[in-house]
């Protein structure tokens, strides 16, 4: 058993960190204020090929694994870019996995390269206002009419829809009452984002202002039939296939942000003198930070375990859910502890940790809540009755 990164993995981390170092705290604070998408950061990563880290080589990527992608995402988040930086590229890195796995050769050739090279941006639309985490109940309808599908309905929380050229969309093609089981009847599409037919309304939110999240309203939105991924009615299965690695990547982002917060707080605690000594000399400051580091490090080990299982083709549901749960909680705890270690200054934007605290709610809540991660473990690992 070896817990070390390989030389190649270390080189990946260092190369991504070197790009991120060009975007300092002032850059991310400015994006938090003005809400502008970090285009230059996105372009810098695209130029050096990092958006295609796990896209197959035949389609313009590096063909590496989720382990390497997790390293990239942790490094971005930990650099100070936080969830703003991570979310700006997240979908390019892994979002088109269902196309890579279930798409035809023609679709892969057409769809993967522009995303891997950063020439196109996309959004991923699953969540609906009245469905929540119960994905099988999705209602947005896509009805086949000849060689196209016509879509009507609503989605919510869809990130990067203001910027997107494309949309990966999960829609109901057979009404729920007519399917043999609730996981059937949903279909997956990857298609052009037609702003004449999809109205986008931004949701004003707590953090990550520069990466928008939106309500989408579809009105007679047409999708060419050749943009259906895989078979009609099996979209839920295709999405499930990508859920574990997505959880791993989000967990890596949470660990990165948490580690950043802890290192910020430790630095501040060494410099801040109160009662004639650094506040970091007090165990009441030291111990919570040390505990956060230990929790984050443990979560990271679980991220690597889950990523390694996925990359070796092993079942990784338990490890991926455990990693997502542990990293979300540890990341949150670290950011909160970092604010408290800064005292009043933790509440000031110029010390950055309040921004991390606002952003770390994202990997805690999405794409699946801590409660549902625990429900998965209770049911699938402990064999307890399904509770939902
Ligand atoms: C910033 C941000 C960006 C996002 N980006 C995207 C995106 O790009 N695309 C996309 O499709 N979605 C996106 N989402 C949506 C996100 O995936 C959902 O918010 C998340 O899946 C939770 O769904 P919900 O908000 O409807 O919660 P609900 O399902 O309404 O749940 C609310 C609460 O109830 C709890 N709960 C519900 N049922 C149970 C149960 N049976 N047992 C125990 N607890 C339960 C949940 O754990 C949660 O705490 C984003 C969300 C945020 C906040």
TrEMBL record:
Keywords: FAD, Flavoprotein, Oxidoreductase. Residues 6-118 form the Acyl-CoA dehydrogenase/oxidase N-terminal domain. Its cofactor is FAD. The keyword Transport does not apply. Residues 233-365 form the Acyl-CoA dehydrogenase/oxidase C-terminal domain. Residues 123-220 form the Acyl-CoA oxidase/dehydrogenase middle domain. Pfam families: Acyl-CoA_dh_1, Acyl-CoA_dh_M, Acyl-CoA_dh_N. Signal peptide: none annotated. It comes from the Bacteria. Transmembrane segments: none annotated. SUPFAM superfamilies: Acyl-CoA dehydrogenase C-terminal domain-like, Acyl-CoA dehydrogenase NM domain-like. Belongs to the acyl-CoA dehydrogenase family. This is Acyl-CoA dehydrogenase. It comes from Paracoccus solventivorans. The lineage of its organism: Bacteria, Pseudomonadati, Pseudomonadota, Alphaproteobacteria, Rhodobacterales.
């Amino acid at each position: 058993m070896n817990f070390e990164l390989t030389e190649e993995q270390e080189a990946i981390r260092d190369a991504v960190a070197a790009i991120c170092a060009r975007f300092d705290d002032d850059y991310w604070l400015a994006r938090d204020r003005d809400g502008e998408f970090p285009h230059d950061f996105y372009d810098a990563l695209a130029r050096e090929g990092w958006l295609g880290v796990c896209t197959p080589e035949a389609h313009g990527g590096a063909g590496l694994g989720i382990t390497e992608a997790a390293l990239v995402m942790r490094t971005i988040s930990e650099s100070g870019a936080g969830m703003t930086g991570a979310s700006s590229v997240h979908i390019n890195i892994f979002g088109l996995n269902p196309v890579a796995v279930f798409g035809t050769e023609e679709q892969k050739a057409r769809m993967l390269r522009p995303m891997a090279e950063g020439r196109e941006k996309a959004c991923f639309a699953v969540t609906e206002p009245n469905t929540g985490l119960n994905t099988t109940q999705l209602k947005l309808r896509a009805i086949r009419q000849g060689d196209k599908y016509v879509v009507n309905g609503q989605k919510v929380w869809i990130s990067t829809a203001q910027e997107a050229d494309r949309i990966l969309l999960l829609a109901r093609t057979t009404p729920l009452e007519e399917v043999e089981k609730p996981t059937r009847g949903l279909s997956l599409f990857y298609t052009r984002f037609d702003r004449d037919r999809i109205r986008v309304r931004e949701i004003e939110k707590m953090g990550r202002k520069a990466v928008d999240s939106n309500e989408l309203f579809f009105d007679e939105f047409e999708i060419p039939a050749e943009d259906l991924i895989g078979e009609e009615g099996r979209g839920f299965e295709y999405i499930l296939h990508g859920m574990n690695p997505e959880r791993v990547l989000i967990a890596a982002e949470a660990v990165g942000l948490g580690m950043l917060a802890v290192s910020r707080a430790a630095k501040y605690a060494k410099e801040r003198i109160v009662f004639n000594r650094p506040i970091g000399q007090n165990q009441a400051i030291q111990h919570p930070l040390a505990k956060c580091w230990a929790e984050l490090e443990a979560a990271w080990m679980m991220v690597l375990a889950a990523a390694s299982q996925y990359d070796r083709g092993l079942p990784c549901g338990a490890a991926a859910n455990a990693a997502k749960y542990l990293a979300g909680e540890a990341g949150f705890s670290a950011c909160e502890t970092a604010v408290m270690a800064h005292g009043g200054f933790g509440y000031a934007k110029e010390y950055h940790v309040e921004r991390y605290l606002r952003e770390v709610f994202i990997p805690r809540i999405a794409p699946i809540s801590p409660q549902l991660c625990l429900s998965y473990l209770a049911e699938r690992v402990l064999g307890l009755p399904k509770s939902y």
